[in-house]
Amino acid sequence: MTSLVEPVESKPQSSSWLPGAALPAPLSPNVSGRDEGLRARLVWLTRLRWVAILGQLAVVWPALSLGWLDRPLLVCFLSIVGGLALLNIVTSRWVVRDRNPGVDMLLVQLLFDLAALTSLLLLSGGAWNPLAPLLFVHAALGALLLDGWRSAAKLAAMAVSIASVTLAPLAPPALPVFPTPVNVALPSFLLVALVIWGFTSWLTSTLGEHRRLLLNLKEHQERGDRLRAAGALAAGFSHEFSTPLNTLKMRLDRLSRGVLGEEDPDLVAAQKAADHCESVLRKMIGRRLEPGELRMENVDVHKLVERVCSSWAAGGRQPRLTARGPRHRMVLPALALTQALLNLLDNASEAMLGAGDTTSPVEVELDADDTRVRIAVLDRGPGWPQVVLENLGQPFVTTKIDGTGLGLYNAHALAVALGGRLRLEERAEGGAIATFLLPVEAFAPGELQ
Amino acid sequence: MTDEPIDLLLVEDDEGLRETMALEFGDRGYRVSQAGSLAAAQRLLGGGLQPRFAVVDLRIGPDNGLDVVDAIVSKAPGARAVILTGYGSLPTAVQAVKQGAVNYLAKPVTIQRLERALWTDEPDPEEVAVPDRRESLARHEREYIEYVLLQCEGNISKAARWLGIHRQSLQRKLRKFRPG
Fold first, then answer.
1. A333·B94 Cβ contact <8 A
2. Which CATH number applies to A292-447: 3.90.1150.10, 3.40.50.720, 3.30.1360.120, 3.30.565.10?
3. Which of A255-259, A284-288, A360-364, B18-22 shows the lowest mean pLDDT across its residues?
4. B121 touches chain A (CB under 8 A)
5. Residues 6+ apart with CB under 8 A from A70
6. Dihedral sign computed on CA atoms, order A24, A385, A419, A307
7. B24–A247: do the CB atoms touch at under 8 Å?
8. CA–CA separation, A206 vs A214, rounded Å?
9. Using CA atoms, how far apart are residues A348 and A169, in angstroms rounded to an integer?
10. What SS3 class is residue A375?
11. Which end of chain B has the least Cβ crowding within 10 Å, N or C?
12. Is the pLDDT of residue A230 over 80?
């Protein structure tokens, strides 16, 4: 089965985590359960048809030797089978290209199959062909693959087909012996039973697998929704709480400048407690947005990255920087970008440390062309945890025991805010890559006052 | 010390915080106008208020502070608006600056830092020359004494009784105010 979940890069969602802002649209791959169900069924049908074609070819020899099929009719027989094969090839090609088959397509295909089987039977004994009960397979197929009026239409077609093979004045008199001898009838009936059991089991398991994938998808979406809700809650709480806290602190400050004086022990204790509230709040939200972080500066990106690399060293590990391409000056929030890069470097170092590697360097690649700047941080650790890959762009996702799950989130938010992307990839030789892609045009110096 | 009032617009829906900030800024010599909603702010601006500074909460009840920034930028261009928020969101911060805010602070914030942010774009400066517009005690005293004198039609004895100080003390003070 083809994968239904597209690999997550960084989706620039409208993820402004502000209370009052509408919750961002749920992460939804372009899939509706019904469409994919149809496609799954069509694919399964083409496979079944190959099996049927093989079966039909296989009975040619026994049919000829037992006299069920007259030699002159062989050409007719084979051309019908050939027609089915052609239909199957065309359908497979078409299914690969087009993602949205309609339900009518299924109906048409099934009617074709029914017509083909009916004509084959008409050429080889009609209702008295011991394999005639294979027609009943179509009744089941109709019910399993279609619904509503289409299923009923299929049933009607079946009735026509049964009538024709039973009544056919055109059916060649193909029966040398009647009633059918047991040594022919028995295996035939067993074969038919086997076929019906076989295809029913096969279809059930295919559809079951499909249903499991849908459940996974739903779970994924729900988890995403919960995270978003948690984030929105945190943002809402932060706003609701920090406002009266601000009032409290300002009033205490006024008291210390006024009548009570700075030294009043009650006042000092109250201020200490208020400061404690503030630090708990900051820790919980995990990010302190200082005015400086936002400040836009016209920076030489190369120089900024070089500075970050030379000032960062964790556990004795030095980053190894390779830089290529023209040097660009861009208007960026330099401090925020510096912190994001430091976060990525810390992540890389921790990943390798966690795997017991204390010597491999963290690599940083910087290259630029006329349209974009790429800053990549590479490590040789165990690679990205699956949950991180799946939830890039969501806050509070971490596998670290004391992690806040906000490092990557902030880096991603910064990239998106600057009109670029943050990409997470696995290295071929093992390890993780985090890449900032920033468009050079993002902030033209003239855009700011 | 300048006599020209500096207008400051406060847009914040939480009454407690708004009135506290108004008090603090008032003490520091600003002429404060308060608005508790986008509509109130628009009314003030539409009615001719030309604030030099503005402190705007990002979330004012159901309203968005960025809309207030838009109104300020169009009705009072040149005003320096600082955004206050409870939860630092970088994309919104970038957006606010693009729309015309000069600074972006996360609550809780001290009045000193808030005031500094109005005057300068420097992140977290150690010393910023914020003009000291606090009413000095001396000036207050002088104004009050002159008011009392007016009420007493220039009668120093009466004024001294009113103020509850000795006549001679009052005379000394008056000599300080008007030498010669």
1. yes
2. 3.30.565.10
3. A284-288
4. yes
5. A172, A174
6. positive
7. no
8. 13
9. 80
10. strand
11. C
12. no
